[in-house]
Amino acid sequence: MKTYDLDILAAYFHSTVGVPPEKFARIRHLFQLEHYPKGEFLVRQEEHAQKMWFLLEGYIRCYAEAKDKEITHWVYWPHRLVTDIPSFNRQGPSHWHFQTISDCAAFALTYEQYQEAQRIVPDWHVYENRILVKFFMSLEHRIYTFISMNATERYQYLHDAHPELFNQIPLIYLSSLLNMAPETISRIRRKTIS
C-alpha cells in the first residue's frame, strides 16, 4: 500500500490558508491516513459528517437524492479538503452523500480531533475563516457559471480548468454536475472534437 507524507498536507495548509509550518507541526499527529475502496460512503445524506478529509488520491462525489434521481453537487479530486462543512461544524444532518467513485487515500481528521487542533493552535479560527472563504468563493463562482454560461460554455470551462476529470469521472456524474443531460455532453463533446 502506498504511503504518503504529511508534508503534503502541511504545504497545502501553508500555501492555501497561510498556516505556518511550526503551527502545523503541533497538530500533524491528529491526521490519520485512511484508504477507501471505490463505492464507499464517507457521509450519507441525513447523517452527520464525522470527519474532514484531505484527499490524496482518487475522486469523491458529493450528491443528493431528490425526486427519484441523483443530483451531483460536486466532484472532489486530489489535494482538496472534503467534508460537508455545515454538517461537520454543527454536527447536524448532511444534505449530501459523499461517496468514493474510485479507490481513495486521504488524511482524515475527526470532529473531536478538529476541536483538539483548535485547542492546540489558539488562533486556528483565523485559518478556519480562510478555509470557509475559499469554500464560499468556489461555490459562488460555480453559481455564477451556472447563471452566466450556456451548456457548451459550462462544459468548455470545466474541461479547460480540469481536463483530468473527463478521463476519470463517469459521464453520468459529469452531466449532473454540469446540469445537463448525458446526451447533451456527448453532443458537445462530438462538436469540440470535430
- Helices, by number, come to 9
Strands of the widest sheet, in order across it, are 1-8-3-6
What is the helix fraction of residues, given as a range? 40-55%
**Low-pLDDT windows of residues:** none
Topology as a string of helices (H) and strands (E): HHEEEEEEHEEHHHHHH
Shape: globular
N- to C-terminal distance: 42 Å
Total count of strands: 8
Fraction in beta strands: 15-25%
Structural class: alpha+beta
Mean pLDDT figure:
92
How large, in whole angstroms, is the Cα Rg? Answer: 18 Å
Provide a descriptive summary of the structure in words:
The structure is a single chain. The protein is 48% helix and 22% strand. With 194 residues, the protein is an alpha+beta fold. A hairpin with a 2-residue loop joins strand 4 and strand 5. The protein is globular. It starts with 6 loop residues before the first helix and ends with a helix. 25% of the residues are buried. The mean pLDDT is 92.
Write a compact overview of the structure shown.
With 194 residues, this protein is of the alpha+beta class. It has nine helices and eight strands. A hairpin with a 2-residue loop joins strand 4 (60-66) and strand 5 (69-76).
